[in-house]
Design a protein that fits this description.
Elements (H helix, E strand, L loop, with lengths): L1 H16 L3 H29 L2 H22 L4 H11 L45
């Protein structure tokens, strides 16, 4: 999984530097789809085997991928990215390119006691940005 994410980060950076914004979006879309496929495939396998260690690894891999994807999305959708960061209870080091390859725990103030913010049922994460009204 990390190879997939790291390739996406390098592709994103390359395309951003060249101002190939359509390829930036394509890169993000592609990596999100691949992470979703990974989740579906390996969580099903873990469930079929009733393997808690495998489930834990899939969750860890997916959280790492989500953290990286969120960082990549921040320049494109800043308000939504900030909102997700808040619910994941991560600090603002998440936005620093210096920390793009760090594990998600690097962005937690107290990893041993970290808690997520509760999301109410039927909550809409993706509200329109002010510029869309």
């Amino acid at each position: 999984m990390k190879d997939l994410i790291h390739k996406a980060i390098y592709d994103y950076e390359h395309n951003m530097a060249r101002h190939e914004f359509h390829l930036v979006i394509y890169t993000i879309d592609d990596v999100i789809r691949n992470v979703s496929k990974y989740w579906s495939k390996y969580m099903k396998a873990a469930d079929d085997k009733d393997d808690d260690d495998m489930r834990a690894q899939v969750i860890a891999d997916t959280l790492y991928a989500s953290k990286c994807i969120l960082t990549l999305l921040h320049p494109i959708t800043p308000s939504t990215s900030e909102f997700v960061r808040e619910y994941l209870n991560l600090n603002e080091s998440l936005w620093s390119w210096d920390h793009i390859f760090d594990d998600i725990t690097a962005h937690m103030d107290q990893p041993d006691t970290h808690k997520l913010k509760v999301i109410e049922s039927k909550f809409d994460f993706y509200k329109k940005d002010e510029s869309q009204f």
